[in-house]
Amino acid sequence: MLHLTLFLAFAVVAVAGAVNLLAQRHPINSALSLIAVMAALAGEYLLLGAEFVAAIQVIVYAGAIMVLFVFVIMLLNAGVEERTNGSRVAIVFGIPGMLIGGVLVAWAVLRSSGGEQVAIGALPGPPAEIANLLFHEFLLPFEITSILILIAIMGAVVLASKPQAVQKRKEH
Amino acid sequence: MPIWLFIVVSVIKSIILLFILLTAVAYSVWLERKVVGHMQNRWGPTRVGPFGLLQPAADGLKFLFKEDLTPPHVYKPLYIAAPMIAVVFALTSISVIPFGNSVTIGGYSIPFQVTDVNTGLLLILGVTSIGVYGVALAGWSSNNKYSLLGGLRASAQMVSYEISLGLSLVGVLIMAGSFSLRQIVDAQAGHFWGFIPRWNIFHGQIIGFFCYLIAAYAETNRVPFDLPEAETELVAGYHTEYSAMKFAMFFMAEYANMITVACLATLLFLGGWRGPVFGPPILQAILPVFWFFVKVFCFMFVYIWVRGTLPRFRYDQLMAFGWKFLLPLAILNLIGTAVAVAW
Amino acid sequence: MVPLSYYLVLSGILFACGVTGFLIKRNIITIFMSIELMLNGVNLSFVAFAAHWHALAGQVFVFFVMVVAAAESAVGLAIIIAVFRARETLNADQLNLLKL
Hints:
Distance between the termini of chain A: 68 Å
Shape of chain C: elongated
Number of strands of chain C: 1
CATH architecture of chain C: Orthogonal Bundle
Helix content of chain A: over 70%
Radius of gyration of chain A: 21 Å
CATH class of the domain at 1-81 in chain A: Mainly Alpha
Order of helices and strands of chain A: HHHHEHHH
Oligomer: heterotrimer
Number of strands of chain A: 1
Mean pLDDT of chain C: 84
């Protein structure tokens, strides 16, 4: 009962945040509601026992990636979103389409599941065991992601640096 | 322990801790003014009470009774929420910090800690990384160019230095093999050759401590990295438009963050509450807490000392230092520790 | 005890909100945030399935998704900054030319 209550509380926060992300017209409000969604999901992970994933969710997603988003919104001084013809068409077709799709998926999931239950803290994910998996079984993907990150850093630096600076670097 | 007793004890502990923390915040402001004053050949606060000891109370009263101005051009919801975000997350992170061993009252062992989480360190890192939003949103919602610049600087600086901060802690984590702050302190028990304590700072983590120290100064926006509020160029940075209690909240958040950082340094590198323990049982229960506070005080003193000594960095120097010097140094420290432990 | 399907439905709702945002939003930063929302929805079902099958690999997958999301957001935001410099707009409808 406690588990269900907590699950529903976090779920309500997550869904409200997600809907608010769509409803808000200023990007910074959308970003803040996305942070609320992420915090609520961290709570859901804790309920499932995945404490390490919950901590990483808060540190990486809410604490680093979303700070980057807020930073860019502040840097570009992004204002309120304008309504154009394209956005009206998208709203008219997008929202009903997604509602139908969502209801279909939910119906399929609820129908096909055989009533499997998940207990509170079902699978504790202690950092040591996750590290064991990561550095033995998933070592190759892990190394590949590190290369991916390196490429992403270099790409970001090249893309975001001013064009004149790039020109100067070429001349030297 | 029955659940109701657990809840009652937790609530009492939280209230006591909050009281101690806020008093410590108030008196670290007093300490800073006094010490910096003496370094600059001045007296610092002297008028209110002996040695100006009642100055924090006077300041608090003044903050309460000042008019709370809200400029007309601000984005109100976030303008009001920003100082609250800053202060709430600054005060939350102290909750997993252990101040000493446990005492036994009425057959129950009660630790000097609000809650013992086995991923305590991750929790502190997570909470402090959320705290950036207070500063960033304050800068943005004030709708003022100085505030915006301060907020931008703060978010860039804090995200950059958080990486070095996290990496400098990994060395300690490898040696202790746990995220629990209590177990990290327990791993530092004992002495080398009978007299040098086996604290991490004497146990090969001197470079890690150095990285942590610098990154922590940048994380808390203190001199020499106080660019988000650099008064010579940005008026007051992100809190330019704030007054009265809202300003006081940012002030409290900054000093509470300093205290958290000092506690963390004590736990991770300086052996936590370990120190010579002697005398009757009651003294033996109190002394570890005393040693903990002495170490935290020393760390805070260094903070103030640095403020009285060093000039401010330029912004490009700050970024270059963080990415080109501190980050490689922290990675080298990590590799060195890993090799030494694996040996 | 909570049925596994509840977690999946929640994850589906979040994913659907992400797709909707991707379709109806016109600001590229918000569109980008909708993608992050979709990734978050998927992560939840990974963790729920991990708990259900008692396989920690599900949690490791979440770790990988986060790493990819971090890399993606770094590059994506850099692209947004570059686009804003060239066009002075963040509206996706006005970014309809292939040349500068």
